[in-house]
From TrEMBL, chain A:
It comes from the Bacteria. GO terms for cellular component: plasma membrane. GO terms for biological process: transmembrane transport. Keywords: Cell membrane, Membrane, Transmembrane, Transmembrane helix, Transport. Its main location: membrane. It is a multi-pass membrane protein. Residues 71-251 form the ABC transmembrane type-1 domain. The keyword Membrane applies. SUPFAM superfamilies: MetI-like. This is ABC transporter permease subunit.
Length: 260, 269
């Protein structure tokens, strides 16, 4: 018994090690290519700054309270947008799923809203809500609302009939059917919607900050590049990537079903 | 008065569509309190349909089902509780929650449901699996959870659709013996669909043989030997005679079905 248990375990560990080795190799290759491109006469420093300049700039950024204030604003916008989209999406999805006709009408509209290049509408958000945090939050919340609502409706409406039959056989109330059966069965799909929503939120917030704002990391990037402070701009992008990775990881952790 | 009466029951699927299908045809059947009835018949003959109609999950197209003399219009799990053919456990609930879910749905408090769930899981031999999720269980273990879920209601009648299908001989016999004993003690009745000849005879006070679709009752056989029965019953002449008889009956019905299907597909060509 212990033998059959440790073998797959070891194999998994070995595979993990391989994966990390490959990732490291890729990172080194990218950095190597960067260093090479930096050598005189290869690529203009306006396009690709010196690697050392970026790392210097990065350490400076991380040490500055101004950066963290901006990062705080960006993260706050992301969290607020996600919360609004999640609450609104779940609620709308639940309500819309109740009427078969309404649901059939809503589904294609939501799918379409998800496909639509919402970036085209960002100027309108600026008009309506102003250049402050509100427009970023509203814009990202709208973007994430569509996939969350869509997945919630689809999930609630595609519950296997055999589970509903159990509810009927044991006399479940409609509240019990909703919460113990439908939401349970739809959970994987709803969680997938929330995961999509959370990545949309991160993308949209940054995009909105780049396109027009006075605060946030996106704004910092925009400022740095318009002043041709390319190294700063790269360093801020790096910081933003790290922050979104952390946020995404936390979301993934929170949004995983127990039985999956 | 009989516990449950099925009176001239006809069930059709897809009435008034081009896919209309006659699943049960003019069935009469009574179940007495405390009785153990097995139903056997060819696949697709309408056994599950009959069972679901007895428990109020399907409305009769014609005829009636009465429980304690009252027409059954919707399921009442304290009267008749189901064990479904495909177990139908909720993968998002733990085994213990699943076992208690029937009672919760029937209106019991969480505490009562959980304590009953524990008791019944212990009875079906899954005491240590309460925290697991169904996907971590074998098919036979999942079936036992479904049995526990139904038993938790302490119903007057247990409607079981091939509840031992995924169990090995040994487990099947042990669980069957225990089940038959406790149901007997509590005076609970059972209707059990099975594909196993031995099972159909061994547990039954009465065997209902159904013909190929449209399902009718071809024959009812009373097994007089008192329950609980010892394993030796299976070696008696009566058991063997019954087994041969059932085997031949099912052969005939199976052949009928095959011939009918052949001729109808020939007609299509
Ligand atoms: N919901 C449904 N809609 C339409 N037809 C159905 C439905 N359920 C069952 N049928 C059909 O009714 C007939 C009887 O089905 P049923 O499930 O009662 O058979 P069964 O005797 O339980 O078969 P098995 O032994 O394979 O479980 C079959 O031909 C089946 O295709
Ligand atoms: Mg069946």
């Amino acid at each position: 018994m212990p033998i059959t248990l440790t073998r797959p375990g070891r194999r998994v560990v070995r595979r993990q090690a391989t994966i990390w080795a490959l990732r490291l190799a890729l990172l080194l290759a990218v950095l190597g290519a960067w260093r090479y491109a930096n050598t005189a006469g290869e690529v203009s420093p306006l396009i690709l700054p010196q690697l050392s300049a970026v790392t210097d700039s990065f350490t400076q950024l991380v040490g500055s309270s101004h950066t963290w204030q901006q990062a705080g604003i960006t993260v706050l916008e992301m969290l607020a947008a996600f919360t609004i989209a999640a609450v609104g999406g779940l609620l709308c999805g639940f309500l819309l799923s109740r009427g078969p006709v309404i649901a059939r009408t809503a589904e294609p509209l939501l799918a379409w809203g998800y496909m639509f290049p919402l970036a085209l509408l960002y100027p309108l958000f600026l008009l309506w809500v102003g250049v402050g945090m509100g427009s970023k939050i509203a814009y990202a919340a709208v973007g994430a609302f569509f996939p969350i609502t869509y997945n919630t409706i689809r999930g609630l409406r595609s519950v296997d009939a055999k589970y509903l039959q159990v509810g009927r056989a044991f006399g479940a109330s409609s509240l019990q059917v909703d919460f113990n059966i439908k939401f349970g069965a739809a959970r994987p799909m709803i969680l997938a919607g929330l995961r999509i929503g959370s990545s949309i939120v991160t993308i949209f917030v940054v995009l909105a900050e780049l396109l027009g704002s006075q605060k946030g990391l996106g704004h910092e990037i925009e400022q740095a590049s318009s002043r041709l402070m390319i190294a700063d701009s790269y360093a801020t992008v790096l910081l933003l990537i790290l922050i979104t990775i952390v946020l995404q990881r936390v979301m993934e952790r929170l949004l995983r079903a127990k039985h999956e | 008065m009989s516990l449950l009466t099925v009176d001239n029951l006809t069930v059709k699927y897809g009435v008034d569509t081009k896919d209309e299908l006659l699943a049960c045809h003019e069935i009469d059947l009574t179940i007495e309190g405390g009785e153990f009835v097995t139903i056997i018949g060819p696949s697709g003959c309408g056994k599950s349909t009959l069972l679901h109609t007895m428990g109020g999950l399907i409305s009769p197209t014609d005829g009636a089902v009465r429980f304690d003399g009252v027409p059954v219009t919707k399921p009442n799990p304290r009267n008749a509780a189901f064990v479904f053919q495909d177990y139908s456990l909720f993968p998002w609930k733990s085994v213990e929650e699943n076992a208690g879910m029937g009672l919760r749905f029937a209106g019991a408090s969480k505490a009562e449901a959980m304590s009953q769930a524990k008791t019944q899981l212990e009875f079906v031999g899954l005491k240590d699996f309460g925290e697991r999720y169904p996907r971590a269980l074998s098919g036979g273990m999942q079936q036992r959870v479904a049995i526990a879920r139904a038993l938790a209601l302490e119903p007057k009648l247990l409607l079981m659709d091939e509840p031992f299908g995924a169990l090995d001989e040994q487990t099947r016999r042990n669980l069957g013996t225990d089940l038959s004993r406790i149901l007997g003690e509590a005076g609970q009745a059972v209707v059990m669909i099975t594909h196993s000849l031995d099972e159909a005879i061994f547990w039954a006070d009465r065997i209902v043989v159904m013909s190929a679709r449209p399902g009718r009752i071809a024959e009812e056989i009373t097994v007089e030997t008192p329950r609980p029965r010892q394993l030796e019953f299976m070696t008696t002449k009566r058991f063997q005679d019954l087994r041969v008889h059932l085997f031949e009956q099912l052969e005939v019905h199976q052949r009928d079905a095959a011939e009918r299907d052949a001729s109808s597909s020939a007609a299509v060509v």
